[in-house]
Amino acid sequence: MEKESSLVAEYSDFLLHQQGLAEGTVRMWRHHVEPFLLHLGQQATANGLRKLSASTVCAFVVARATRLPRSGKKALCHALRSFLRYAHVRGYIDASLVEAVPTIPTYRLARLPRALPWDEVLRVLHGIDRTSLIGKRNHALLQLLVTYGLRIGEVRGLHLDDIDWRHDRLSIRHRKTRAPLLLPLTREVGDGLITYLREVRPITAPYREIFLSIRSPHRPLCTRGLAQIIRECIEHANVTGIHRGPHALRHSVASRLLQIGRPIKEIADLLGHRSLESTLAYTKIDVDHLREVALDLPGVSS
User: Could you confirm whether domain 2-100 is CATH 1.10.150?
Assistant: First the structure.
């Protein structure tokens, strides 16, 4: 174990001072190299590596990759190839075994979005108690999410000045693209906001953010607080989907729009995707089970 630790430390020092890699990258590569050396057992020494075979390297990568996400698979292969090059240069192995590290296929669109069935999305929205102060705030918040597919951070960043009541428009600045987006203010969203602003939000609050805490001192809700509110609303509705976080609603809006035939470009603009590939992921969802009901989603202008 001591020799193994020494070998890892030697390799890490090489990455930092000879290759000039960032400490974060070195830590990530060590995260994959250390289990590899542990797997080799007593062979994980400068002398023991001479007996290393290509089949051993390949088998380790294949077995470990099955438990890793897409990014982890890529990091594993990069780290093992780097270590094997280093071992060859240092003379610990006679022949380079870099080619023994297999190429693990990683598909950008392989992961299914975490959408909820649309009837369950509506059950979440309609299940909120709108007679309480908290319920009125949460309903206005949820209505924004299920109508426009906003990110939690975008809801958190909404200011009073972003609502153009005269022209029935809502201005959103997407967190990732930073591009302003003008959305027609639907009746449902407008009614929810009016109820919240008139009956719940303190008039004297010194903040321009729309959504504030119910209890005094009334402060803007943080991202974590908003996410917790959404999660509790979803759990309260007893939905059957395995994903019950706030991003599930965003995926649900996108998949619903696809199901009713909205163009990919329109959905991409609404969601603030910089690449259509991000939106194309939603086309992988089987939406046959969704109901023929939906909130009216307005057109988008940017």
Answer: yes
Span 118-284 CATH architecture: Orthogonal Bundle (1.10)
147 SS3 class = helix
In the predicted model, what is the mean pLDDT of residues 80-92?
91
Domain boundaries, the chain: 2-100, 118-284
Catalytic residue among 30, 139, 250, 251: 250
Using an 8 Å Cβ cutoff, are 108 and 277 in contact?
yes
Which pLDDT band, with edges at 50, 70 and 90, does 200 fall under?
very high
Residues in the chain: 302
Instruction: Give the ranges where the chain is alpha helix by DSSP (H).
Output: 2-17, 23-40, 54-65, 70-89, 118-126, 133-148, 152-156, 187-199, 223-236, 247-259, 264-271, 276-280
Evaluate whether 273 touches 280 at the Cβ level (below 8 Å). Answer: no
**Whole-model pTM?**
0.56
pLDDT digits (tens, 9 = 90+) for 49-74: 988 999 999 989 888 888 887 778 88
Using alpha carbons only, give the angle 78, 82, 104 rounded to the nearest 5 degrees. 30
Mark whether 250 is an active-site residue.
yes
| Per annotation, catalytic residue among 108, 176, 274, 291 | 176
How far, in Å, are 81, 142, 237, 249 from residue 233 at the CA level?
A: 47, 9, 6, 11
> Is residue 92 among the annotated active site residues?
no
Residue 176 falls in the annotated catalytic set: yes
Catalytic residue of the set 136, 137, 244, 273: 273
- Residue 218 and residue 202 in contact, taking contact as beta carbons nearer than 8 Å: yes
pLDDT in tens, 224-247: 889 899 888 888 888 765 566 667
Q: Could you tell me the two tokens for 88?
A: 């060859």
